[in-house]
Amino acid sequence: MNKWLYLDDEPCSGYLNMATDEFLLERVERGGGAPVLRLYSFQPPAVTIGFHQAAHRAVDVEALRRDGIDLVRRITGGRALLHDGEITYSLAAPLDAKVFGSGLRETFLSISRALVRSLAILGVEAQVAPGPNHTRKVEKSGPCLASASRYELTVRGKKIAGSAQRRKKTSFLQHGSILLDRTSAGITSYLAKSFDSWGEFITSLSEETGAKMETREVKRIIRDGFADTFGVDFKELRFSPEERARIRTRAWEKAEEFSSPAPTGGRSHDDISA
Predict the structure, then answer these.
(1) Catalytic residue chosen out of the listed positions 91, 144, 161, 164
(2) What is the pTM of this model?
(3) I want to staple 72 with a disulfide (CB 3.0 to 4.6 A). Which of 14, 80, 141, 175 is the partner?
């Protein structure tokens, strides 16, 4: 059985979360090696914007500061997301890992199948979206969850998980949000432009199962879904002190991009190892 690395992170700031994902991508790009699956959440809640988005055109920066919500740029594309009431996954891996197939399409599909399997264990029958929901036109400034892009997950036509991917010369990182509840719909309060209610276009694990989902249990099942789909066994990833320092430095740099306060919430930057 193939060995992958696994990082089960405690909730932490948006700055630290995005810095860690970027570091994992660069780690694989530099040295190759086994794919790394990371599962995490945000504390305090955070809004991330796509790599090419202009912050002041996408969101109300002052409103986010007022409410103590982190604003941070993702390494991937897409539109604004409020990370609250979700489990976030990221997967960093070499492009030549045969288990993901070849090309962007096959990589997305293979990871989507692992997520579908995970949700099935939870009793939720999800499907891989064939493409955007053309019945609803979403502006570039609109929220990312308002439409399902190709290879994202839906239940009864409603979006339950979204993903985005960044590819480098020899590696890729894909990350995405799996909705535990509907709190992420609060992004509409922070968009730069007004946006009509879109609650009917999303769903969540709590709605589909009729129960409040425990974060630790959902993480375990997601990990098991990936293990079953790809036929792998996981080994815990631990960062060295030098790696923790590099991630911490990058987190501070990301906090400064929008002149936000210093990173807050979650674990200390000196305590980032799994």
Answers:
(1) 144
(2) 0.88
(3) 14
